[in-house]
Amino acid sequence: MAHQVTMTPGEGIGPEVTGATRRVIDATGVKIDWDVVEASLDTIEKYGTALPDYVLDSIARNRVALKGPVATPMGKGFNVPIAWTEGGKRSSVPRYYPSISVAMRKEFDLYANLRPARMYPNVKTRYDNVDLVMIRENTEDLYLGIEHMVTPDIAEATKIITRRASERITKFAFDYAVKNGRKTVTALHKSNILKLTDGLFLEAAQQVARDYPQIEFNDRIIDNICMQLVQKPELYDVLVAPNLYGDIVSDLCAGLVGGLGVAPSANVGDNVVIFEAVHGSAPKYAGQNRANPMAVMLCGFMMLRHLGEQKAADVAEKALVSVLQEGKTIPADMGGSAGTIEFTNAIIDAMQKA
């Protein structure tokens, strides 16, 4: 039977990189029924929201989605409807979220953001041995967007940390470590200053760690871990953090292995998983066959593994690695001259020869 997967191509370079990823996944032979729906800034004028009901319905029905990059204008919000209310009824009252991604995470309770950062051949970095996984709490902290103007010259934001969310994300990190043969989990915080909020997160992490004696646990203050990751990233393995710190450190980890162009992610909940690249929509490169689809492809391989198609994911990823190792067909942003189509063709050719 075919897997049912929602795809939102996104905007800018989104349709090109998601299209390239779909070609590679289809070339594995895995049967997927793609439900292609539109979630982007372009839908606001047509539907009054960046997330129309039919998009939310598709994701809720299929429970797996591959999301293309979308733009997030600075200083503006989106009119996004509440997905479900009590009794499974959709509310007609709109909520405002800072981005489409944040709205999706809230509507489907995608509480864990999973961001692996590992080395790939012919990707320029300053390091030799980086293999990190950043696990970020996805539903609270300053990303709740609770802020207001106290006076015309003073703005105030509220940081919310709960025991439930802190325990849930830490348990997710330890379960991931056990399942994937990882050895260490490190909790990131600033409890020396934020003694109540970050103190609660650290306390919850310490309590969860007691249930996983086979995994080493430690913690690092957020500014210290940023320094240590730059100096000696090989010392770390799985990192777990509240929302804001996780967002910042995950980009730092991507920088260690070559940048956002090689950075996949998954937003994981109990019922829905949405896979998306970390980079933006780069509208100035749209339609020019210049976009590097690698990050979205890596998301696609993560998606295949989530669907239980481990063999297909391994074949596709090995083909990508072989193309990078050969060095003849490298995307322009990685120092080569290959366009989106040429890079994708080379990966499919490598798969067929395997």
Describe this structure in words.
With 354 residues, the chain is α/β, with parallel strands linked by helices. The chain has eleven helices and 14 strands. The protein has helices at residues 14-27, 42-47, 53-62, 100-107, 163-179, 197-209, 222-231, 243-256, 294-306, 310-326, 340-353; strands spanning 3-8, 32-36, 64-67, 78-81, 94-97, 112-118, 131-137, 147-151, 154-157, 184-189, 216-221, 238-241, 264-268, 273-277. It has a ten-stranded mixed beta sheet, sandwiched between helices. Strands 4-5 form a two-stranded antiparallel sheet. Helix 1 runs parallel beside helix 11 (340-353), helix 5 runs parallel beside helix 6 (197-209) and helix 9 (294-306) packs antiparallel against helix 10. The longest helix has 17 residues, at 163-179. The model is unreliable at 81-86 (pLDDT under 50).
Summarize the entry for a quick read.
With 354 residues, the protein is an alpha/beta fold. The protein has helices at residues 14-27, 42-47, 53-62, 100-107, 163-179, 197-209, 222-231, 243-256, 294-306, 310-326, 340-353, and strands at 3-8, 32-36, 64-67, 78-81, 94-97, 112-118, 131-137, 147-151, 154-157, 184-189, 216-221, 238-241, 264-268, 273-277.
